[in-house]
Amino acid sequence: MVLGFAGILIALGNDASSLLGGGSILASVLAAGAAVASFWPRGFPTLDPTRLGEYAVSDLAFTQLTVLDTLEVMLVETRSVLEMKSRRLKLALVSLSAAVVLAAAELMYR
Question: What is the pTM of this model?
Answer without folding.
Answer: 0.75
